[in-house]
User: What shape does this take?
Amino acid sequence: MLSFHEQYERYRCTAEELLQKAVGGMPCGTQLLKDSIAYSLLAGGKRIRPVLFLAAADALGIDYRQASDFAVALECIHTYSLIHDDLPAMDNDDYRRGKPSNHKVFGEGHAILAGDGLLSYAFELLITQCAKGEKYINAAKTLSAAAGIQGMVAGQSADLSYSGNAEGKFGKDELLRLQQDKTAKLIAAPLVMAANLAGKYEAEFEEFGLLLGSLFQITDDILDVIGESQAMGKTLGKDEKSGKLTVVSVLGLEGAQKLADERYRACLSVLDGIQVDVSFLRELVKNIRERKK
Assistant: This one.
């Protein structure tokens, strides 16, 4: 029987293979556009979103090979968001996944277009999957909503709006809504998508996914204060310098650790009510709570 880390690596390698294949067949109009897209999409990372989709599909008895485009679309959307998030007009970050950010290599204009291209390509994949029937349409809708104006894009807008919170005008309520939209919904999406395809446990996987996404963002905020840049693969300490609304800025480091523990226990409690093998997801929750990068 595979250990958690062996199983995670198996899922991650499957995701990498799918992404390599996708880039190889991606019909970009210029080589520069393809190079820019490949630079960020194939830069490695945890691949937690496609891993979650593959793990949930396994747990629910879904053959991921019949829906592998969903895993690719998830990572395309996530990578587009990272490219745009690093731009000078957004978070202005020079490094991502241990490498110079896309715009530092290809310029701002080409970075914007690479992000646009990844988002458009993701929806090409989703539309193709919709031809397979209602369950696939539901899964495509789940990802579309999580990525858009009621999900990640809304969260990014709130993140920009709440920056420079020196007077403490915004607090915990705004913070938790921001983090749910910006991070948690796109982490819940792969779990709900697998549940959509299985036709069961949609509500349970959504609740679990939102809690898991919250836990992930809380630990990210904590690591921005106490982590190491080399391990994280990005510049740390920028949130405090730019006055970002984070769990640490609102609750302090001790309060952030306490909230992370609450989310950890809540995640496990939801999994108790799902009557399939969720042992991998249990270990993943623990790994996220204890992560150092």
In short: The mean pLDDT is 92. Strands lie at 95-96, 99-100. The CA atoms of residues 127 and 140 lie 8 Å apart.
